[in-house]
Amino acid sequence: MNKTIPLQVVASDALYASEAKIYPRETSGIFQRLRTAAVFWLLGMFYLFPWLNWQGRQLVLFDLPARKFYVLGWVFWPQDFFYLSMLLMMAAFSLFFFTALAGRLWCGYACPQTVWTEVFLWMERWTCGNRHQQMKLDAAPWSSEKVLRKGAKQLLWVTFAVWTGFTFVGFFTPIRELSTAVMTATLSGWQLFWIGFYGLATYGNAGYLREQVCKYMCPYARFQGAMFDRQTLIIAYDEKRGEARGARGRGVPSVLTRDALPNAPVVDAAVPRLSAPEPALGDCIDCTICVQVCPTGIDIRDGLQYECIACGACIDACDNVMDKLGYPRGLIRYDTLAGLEGKPVSVLRPRVLIYAVILLVLVGAFLWSVAERVPLIVDVLRDRNALYRNAADGGIENAYTLKLMNQDQRTHHYRIQIESALPITLAAGADRVTVAAEQVVELPLTLKVAAGQAKGVNGIRIRVQSEDDAAVFYVQETRFFGPF
Length: 484
Description:
This protein is an alpha+beta fold. It has three domains: 30-227, no CATH class; 234-340, no CATH class; 376-481, Immunoglobulin-like (Sandwich). It is 40% helix and 18% strand. It has helices at residues 30-48, 81-102, 105-110, 112-128, 131-139, 144-170, 175-183, 189-209, 211-217, 220-223, 239-242, 255-260, 289-292, 313-325, 337-340, 350-371; strands spanning 53-54, 57-58, 60-63, 68-71, 74-76, 234-237, 332-335, 376-382, 389-390, 396-406, 412-419, 425-428, 432-435, 440-449, 457-466, 473-481. The strands form five sheets. Strands 8, 9, 10, 12 and 14 form a five-stranded antiparallel beta sheet that branches. Helix 6 (144-170) packs across helix 8 (189-209). The longest helix has 27 residues, at 144-170. It is elongated. The relative contact order is 0.10.
């Protein structure tokens, strides 16, 4: 007789277990000051740039309907896609360079996820208290104080997220017009959608997902290992110096500090030395503060981990503990895997230098090409209906459409000249044209040669020269057809 065995679901065998909330402890130090400065600098540019004007226009505006990008006084058109390609190449090689040099500096200091998360953490501390107070508040039953604190946090988060979404849309729609539309409740459906979408993304990513974006959603966390080697600077725990871990009283030296580090501070002789039978303790007192301050919740003492975003919080926290104990700083520090093993360190190695040279060449070429860019584009379109046509007097005519694109922010008066070995004359069309700022003009043009002066295919050049600025000109090559 077969027995039916009931199935039981064991909690530890669940396919998915939600992660416990991480409460990063606040710390201070040089790396935290650098991160704070980076937050103010980057968010300052994000929130301020749309409100600044340059030559009567928004300093940074991506005008998609008009297909014009206004960036720091420059105007880029779809024909300037080359510059976007160069920017993408510079971004890629910057990532290669900084990762090979010092790991995930981008993640720790400049990534939007890190920057906005830091601001949301500040607001959470302002309203709900420090790490211990937040944990106690979350564990406590609902009360009027808990409602007020949580409500104040949510109010700050939502306000900041909506402001972020509004500013984001302000990069694509003139922000002053957008603010007027908000005040008068005349936002378009798309404007309202993108403000809400980007605001919700900021609220969700920086308020709730936080470290999970870095650990599970960001592709950079997965392929960064391909750019690391044993000479890459990483945030590392000095296991030789720190082990074995153990708690002790203030002023009690570790064995390593007492015997292996001759420059360590002198400890009061009255403090008893560790007796021989006791295990030799390293400098790590196992306070776990380095874990408490980590925004991704890892233990840096477990070695190099892909979750580490190189924010430096554990370095500052550990240095503060070492200062209190009278131990030398640097138990957790920037070092290389080779350096931790006592081997020679070579930070400026060939791959880093190659990345640096390529990056400098790209930046120099980009700046030079933008500085020397002529704000005029000329396209010559031939009449597709006929290669040529016979004029009434027996001459040969070719018809063209001349498309002039004035990319400058002022009006230009252009003169049209034909450069050719043929005795070409202008049969129809003007040899001078005025094009307003940032306008495109199409001009019909008919060129003519006398009978018998043109055979087959002949290369010619059409030169468009600004009469207002000798440096603004464009030469376009095309062809003139005659009888074969």
